[in-house]
Design a protein that fits this description.
By secondary structure, the chain is of the alpha/beta class. It is 42% helix and 21% strand. Strands 1, 2, 3, 4, 5, 6, 7, 8 and 9 form a nine-stranded mixed β-sheet that branches. The radius of gyration is 19 Å and the shape is globular.
Length: 305
């Protein structure tokens, strides 16, 4: 690998806000790589902005233009082309804290020369609420040891509302490729698959208590807006089914009990979200889909059901 880390930035009509994202990443210096994946943008200058950054920073930034494939295909494309030892996805409306980024990169450089490479680096993320200009920091100090490398067998208990999200993880690139991570096209909420599927392949973990990722939330057209989620509930259900099929958690309990417990909790959350938004829809078709989802779980994995 010729770079320490690859930051993949899926961009779709992102001209109004992507500059802020990219500028924070550029503070990482010459041993980072930024892959800007233009996902078929047609409504603004996103393609030109990607090309401009590549021309201005040819040793750091690469622009990839693809037919529209959705957020997941942007992540896939970044992974296919990544030259960094580590891989992190940063959405184009989010950004990284510059001081925290420096601390994280310094630690990753130390791990890069180790005999056994680190598989997963975890840091905090911050909800940046645009409507009332407030912040909420999501930490993991109650779950993970600090200041040393550890395994799943050494973790504590996650709180009911506490999960690893795409915002908090940095995976080793070759590990992601080895577990054949491939996100579905034209599907929202695939970040759940990204942060869930690779977990059993992770053998070594490090947690740093710094607020790295800033998650912009509150825009009306965001995929996590409640009204938008109701209209896209079929995609939430699709992602949930893919996660159900991705691992045999009964077998995992026999070898990595604490990890299996966490992954079961994550799936419970996904089932809950899917069910709630189908109930909010309230139509006979939506309620039928809720029944079908639970039947899918019961028939494919009775123990988990």
């Amino acid at each position: 690998m010729s770079k320490l880390i690859t930051f993949a930035v899926p961009c779709y009509n992102s001209a109004a806000y992507m500059d802020h994202c990219v500028r924070t990443l550029l503070t990482g210096g010459d041993d980072i790589e930024i892959i800007l994946v233009d996902d078929g943008s047609t409504k603004d200058d996103t393609p030109a902005i990607c090309d401009r950054y590549q021309a201005e920073y040819p040793d750091i930034v690469r622009a990839i233009h693809q037919e529209n494939g959705g957020h997941g295909e942007g992540v896939n494309q970044g992974l296919r082309h990544a030259q960094g030892m580590y891989y992190k996805v940063v959405d184009s409306d989010d950004w990284l804290d510059e001081a925290a980024l420096k601390a994280v990169l310094d630690k990753l450089r130390a791990f890069a020369g180790a005999e056994q490479p680190l598989d997963l680096f975890i840091a905090n993320y911050v909800y940046e609420h645009v409507e009332d200009n407030t912040q909420k920091v999501m930490k993991y100090t109650n779950v993970f040891p600090e200041g040393r490398v550890f395994t799943w067998n050494e973790i504590g208990r996650f709180r009911p509302s506490q999960y690893l999200l795409m915002h908090s993880v940095i995976y080793r690139t070759e590990m992601l490729r080895a577990c054949q991570l491939e996100l579905p096209k034209h599907t929202f909420y695939v970040d759940n698959i990204f942060v869930y599927q690779p977990l059993p392949a992770v053998k070594s973990i490090y947690y740093m208590d710094v607020d790295l990722y800033r998650y912009f939330i509150g825009r009306a057209d965001q995929s996590v807006n409640e009204k938008v989620m109701v209209t896209r509930v079929d995609q939430q259900v699709r992602v949930t089914k893919l996660m159900i099929d991705s691992h045999n958690l009964k077998q995992l309990y026999q070898t990595q009990r604490k990890l299996a417990r966490y992954m079961t909790s994550y799936l419970s959350m996904m089932m809950t979200i899917s069910s709630i938004f189908l109930i909010i829809d309230g139509s006979p078709a939506a309620l039928g889909k809720k029944t079908e989802l639970w039947e899918y779980l019961r028939t494919s994995n009775p123990e988990l059901y």
